[in-house]
Amino acid sequence: MIKIGGESKPFSNVAVSMSGKSDQQQKKQKQVEGGGAGGSSSGRAMRLLVRGARQVVAVGAAGERVKAGKEMDNLSIVTATEDQGVSVAVDEAGLIAAVGLDSEVEAQFRGASWGEVLDAKGGVVVPGLVDAHTHPVWAGDRVNEFAMKLAGATYMEVHKAGGGINFTVDHTRKASEDELLNLLLPRLHRMSRAGTTLVECKSGYGLDVDSEMKMLRVLERARPLAPLTISSTFCGAHSVPKGLTAEEATRRVVEEQLPAVRAAVDAGEMCVDAVDVFCERGVFSVDQSREILQAGRRLGFILNFHADELSALGGAEMGASLGAEAMSHLEEVSPEGISAMAQAGSVGVLLPTTAYILRLPPPPARAMIEAGVPVALGSDFNPNAFCMSMPLVMHLACVTFKLTLNEALTAATLNAAHALKKADSHGSLQPGKVADMLLLDAPRWEHLVYQLGGADDVITHVIKSGRVVHSRRHPATLP
User: What is the spatial distance between Cα 204 and Cα 358, in angstroms, rounded to a whole number?
Assistant: First the structure.
């Protein structure tokens, strides 16, 4: 059966394949091409077969790159029948080759050699989670600020007291690349163990050319060592450096830092996808943020920035006017900003951990969804919001932002990938996409969100490009 939203429909009696053709059509094509009547894949080398699943939650249908409005609540789910489970086949390139009932996939790939076969044992397969907003490269411990916040200090009060971003900047500037890399890698591994397979990672604790480039180089060095995919964002306008005015800082970002990043990208030294700015009262104004974002756009970067978090400045309206791919936080977004985002197709990346930790009013998530804004989720992992678990983020989004379970999964997979302009390859389980998947030891996928803090036990395998990068240790057998 295939289930879309709350409705179950018969799943076709063929496996969904990369070509989009039925098994019978492929057999006929192979006969025409001289492949023989059998149409088998005898001898074909395949990377992975997952079989025996109760559910495979594809999230999006074939060709679907983003969900908005009511579609966020509709999930594509392939469900087992009474006598057989569901399989996912992965080719040698690490791409999904087919999703279908066990017998269908077995018939399509009869004779293939599998690098690994995993028995889902009646569990569930979901897409790897996508964390659309993090700040993971930094040095310096800010645990003392947590006590200050519990005592009632606001974010900006901590900032003015010498804490916050500028405290981390001081420590990150002093740290070497090797030190930062050694701090970063365990964080990325923790994210992976909690189910994240694609993560957006920002710079932003350097605030000058040398330190920002150092952070971006650390992210580049982490790529081959990390068990997930990294999408890098330049965030040199994360704060106003000590001793500078916001206008002076704007000039340095536009005239020095952005050109240096572009030159490094053009030289093949690093890959940077986006530019970010903290558009906020006391940091960068709407006009200064616009100038930075326009400079980034001219250099070919996508726009993914902090907007309307603590103050209703009209950042969302400004971002929409520039066609920004995504805007984050949005606790104070106006109705006009929501309308502008919906019209522009900008993704709203909501960050439940930050609103929770800072005791901020929640963003108007329901109003955004109802207006047609695609909503995504991120952990906002940083020294201020020390959370690396997207299942926990999804739980908070449901309880505090009033998302449905289906909306939360959409926001943490397909829509988050769309915010990073990677939904053509990530975010759902469709043939031709990267085989990033989680195997869950649960009868329904909702347990990933429902079991608060239980992701380590619910997730049995994290699969990245068809390879297992983490597996759960099995508990001891009871006597």
Answer: 20
User: What 3-state DSSP class applies to 264?
Assistant: helix
Pairing of strands 274-279, 229-237: parallel
**Within 10 Å of residue 39's Cβ, how many Cβ atoms?**
18
Terminal Cα distance for the chain, rounded:
38
- Enumerate the β-bridge partners of residue 48: 90, 116
Name, in order, each residue with C-beta under 8 angstroms of 404's C-beta and a sequence gap of 6 or more. Answer: 73, 398
Counts of helices then strands in the chain (DSSP H, E) = 19, 21
Using the 8-state DSSP alphabet, how is residue 140 labeled? -
- Successive 10-residue mean pLDDT values, the chain, 479 residues: 42 39 36 32 87 98 96 98 97 98 96 96 97 98 87 83 87 98 98 98 98 98 98 97 96 98 98 98 97 98 97 97 98 98 98 93 98 98 95 98 98 98 98 98 97 93 98 63
Sign of CA dihedral 389, 394, 398, 400: positive
**Which residues, listed in sequence order, are joined to residue 470 by a DSSP beta bridge?**
462
Four-residue CA torsion sign, 296, 302, 303, 304? negative
**DSSP symbols for 376-417:** EE---BSSSS----HHHHHHHHHHHS---HHHHHHHTTHHHH
- Distance, CA of 195 to CA of 439 (rounded, Å): 9
Contacts of 25-30 spanning 24+ positions with Cβ under 8 A: 26/108
Neighbours of 153 (CB within 10 A): 17
Strand 375-377's sheet: what is its strand order?
129-131, 196-202, 229-237, 274-279, 302-307, 326-329, 347-350, 375-377
* 8 A C-beta contact, residue 322 and residue 113: no
Count CB-CB contacts under 10 A for residue 370: 13
Which of these, 177, 183, 96, 102, lies nearest to 135 by C-alpha position? 183
Is 262 within 8 Å of 300 (Cβ atoms)?
yes
Q: Which of 321, 324, 266, 275 lies closest to 301, judged by CA?
A: 275
Query: How many whole angstroms separate alpha carbon 348 and alpha carbon 401?
Result: 13
Give CA–CA dist 304/155, Å, rounded.
Answer: 22
Pull the structure tokens for residue 424. Answer: 């053509």
Cβ atoms of 461 and 118 within 8 Å: the answer is yes
